[in-house]
Design goal:
Two copies of one chain form a homodimer. By secondary structure, chain A is α/β, with parallel strands linked by helices. Chain A has three domains: about 70 residues, 434 Repressor (Amino-terminal Domain) (Orthogonal Bundle); about 130 residues, Response regulator (Rossmann fold, 3-Layer(aba) Sandwich); about 130 residues, 3-Layer(aba) Sandwich (Rossmann fold), CATH 3.40.50.2300. Chain A has 13 helices and eleven strands. In chain A, strands 2-1-3-4-5-10 form a six-stranded parallel β-sheet, sandwiched between helices. The first copy, chain A, has a three-stranded parallel β-sheet with strand order 6-7-8, with helices on both faces. In chain A, strands 9-11 form a two-stranded antiparallel sheet. At the A-B interface, helix 5, helix 6, strand 2, helix 7 and helix 11 of A face helix 5, helix 6, strand 2, helix 7 and helix 11 of B. Chain B binds a DNA duplex through helix 3 and helix 5.
DNA sequence: GGGCAGCATGAGAACGTTAACATTCTCGAC
DNA sequence: GTCGAGAATGTTAACGTTCTCATGCTGCCC
């Protein structure tokens, strides 16, 4: 009955221009082959005669055929889609990571579905993962700045491939920048210029990235037996850099400040400027991230550059490794950042 | 044969813990109902006895059931997924728009699949649209800064719902900030402070947003019969702001500069500073966008704020309207930006 | 010349869901 | 007590792919 209706619909009108779009069967009919042969052409199966293949391709062009991915996914159980759990995607770092992952995913033949979370509590993250699972993603990349995210990730359904980017956790394969190394570079740079010690305005305490930068900074100070001032708590924002900068500016012994990111450094620069402390003559400032604007700060900011594109690529590698069922080697990839010297740092005036 | 195998597999093991995950039939069996009843529970069909519903829900919980969206999409022809064509997503504006759209989409019950394009030529954009179509998205939101994108969009398959965000074109429903109004606000602000005229460092010539800002600036000057200096070509980057700023700094008659975005303003601020021209005492600078850092520039930047979240929400409204087949009224939505006065602008010194 | 490998193709059954229709059951009205 | 409306549930057929297996057909070897 229904089949009759379809035929009745098709044959009089000539079928090509239906709202529904054409399907494999239409292509097959036009090319005079079975739908299976069309499928073979579509999937580059070797056993198709060149002539037949050509006929099928012509029919596909004529009907403007597009394969239906839902049907394909249903039968292959592969959605070719990755889920991305992201937070604060308006910031440069996460936005760049997202971009890097998307590019890498495309290259690898995957689609990317984004689930931004408003907050990083376990519940929001689990809900985001849930939504992505419902979309039957094959794996999830989570930009995991906070420990809670990692915790939530490890609660993800068993079969699901998962990779964390940025922050760290033992429970989930992770790729991240070696924040400690970057912080140490920045600190050593300042020490090498002759500063007696280096102050540090940190990121939020519960972000592993912030913690690692603190560790790197502290280690570098330890290594040369420099005094370790109390770290100044920031929250990645320029505002926090400004507030902490004002406090630091009142202390004449402060000659070098390492900021956990470039925004903080920007705030600190303004605070120092307002307090009449000249950079770099009186105080040196170093940031972290190398946002595109940092070379136009006043003065241009010495900082540490992260390669976000590489971060995206590597995280995808790790994910695909899991999807292929490869052994869980290299569960943790760490990328070394690059030091970028500009003019916000110099030898102490004394 | 195959059916036998499945039964043989299922019954001995008890089925709940299979790699494949459970499907509707498993739930139905456990709850002692037909799969259709499960479907009804899932889709909130009214005609299910509360007691039955409860039993089904319990079974779903017990089996950790998740509906298979591919199958659902296949039969309903609705993927509940929107495609997002985006460019330069690492910049604050696009990143914020992306975020706004994602949030709005989630609220409306849609998933978002992102296709970033490396460049905005017609080919890249069409390819991105193609990829999204293959994923059977129901509609596409394109962050359409350049005219070529709009052109490519209008080439999209006929049945596809499309909305452009940001830039404009007549051929596609669009939601954008009223850039001309914003630019006029900035310009009028400077004129009201007593400046004889206002110089302008523009965005790239082929971006409608940049063009609209030029128009708004020029109109505001015309309105008070102020002289209209030649616009200085920029490209959104701090670098271009710096370069144009250096040129402007050499001209002592320049007392007010309106920059097409905050990055350009940052570069201009640095150039003016290096040239020894004090802001705002000698030269006033105004930006556009209100990036989070702009209140920590030196000096804090007077600028024009865009509401990206609203932009995302409205573009989604427009898209959903199309999906519902509503009339094509309001094909163009324009949002008025907000003027934000800070300290980078003031009366001319003379 | 019979058997057989292997290529090219086709037929039909999945995949897991929703939609359309069919069936039972429950009540109240006549 | 029968009828019928409507609620609750079940049956079956799509949806558009890919997969498995079957079937010709060709050409080659012994």
């Amino acid at each position: 009955m229904t089949a009759d209706r379809i035929d009745a619909d098709d044959q009089p009108t000539g079928a090509p221009q239906r709202t529904r779009g054409s399907v494999m069967r239409d292509v097959a009919r036009l090319a005079g082959v079975s739908h299976q042969t069309v499928s073979r052409v579509l999937n580059d199966h070797p056993n198709v005669r060149p002539e037949t293949r050509e006929r099928v391709l012509a029919a596909m062009r004529a009907l403007n055929y597009r394969r239906n991915s839902a049907a394909r996914t249903l039968v292959t159980r592969r959605s070719r889609t990755l889920g991305l759990v992201a937070f604060e995607t308006t910031l440069f770092g996460p936005a760049s990571t997202l971009y890097g992952i998307e590019q890498a995913a495309r290259t690898a033949g995957y689609f990317v579905s984004v689930a931004s979370v408003r907050s990083l509590d376990r519940e929001s993250v689990l809900e985001a993962i849930d939504r992505l699972c419902e979309q039957s993603v094959e794996g999830i990349v989570a930009i995991t700045p906070k420990n809670t995210v990692v915790a939530a990730l490890s609660q993800a359904p068993a079969g699901l491939a998962v990779v964390g980017v940025g922050g760290g956790g033992e429970s989930v394969p992770t790729v991240c920048i070696d924040n400690a190394a970057g912080a140490a570079m920045a600190t050593r740079h300042l020490l090498a210029l002759g500063h007696a010690t280096v102050h540090h305005i940190t990121g939020p305490a519960d972000w592993p990235e912030a913690q690692d930068r603190i560790d790197g900074w502290r280690e570098a100070l330890y290594a040369v037996a420099a005094p370790v001032p109390a770290p100044r708590p920031g929250d990645w924002s320029a505002r926090s850099g400004y507030e902490q900068g004002r406090l630091l500016a009142t202390d004449p012994s402060v000659t070098a400040v390492f900021c956990a990111n470039d925004q903080i450094a920007l705030g600190a620069l303004r605070a120092l400027h307002e307090a009449g402390r000249r950079v770099p003559d009186e105080v040196s400032v170093v940031g972290f991230d190398d946002v595109p604007e940092s070379s136009y700060f006043l003065p241009p900011l010495t900082t540490v550059r992260q390669d976000f594109a590489e971060l995206g690529r590597r995280s995808l590698d790790l994910l695909i490794e899991q999807l292929n069922g490869d052994s869980r080697t290299n569960r943790r990839i760490s990328l070394t950042p690059t030091f970028v010297a500009r003019t916000s740092s110099g030898p102490p005036s004394a």
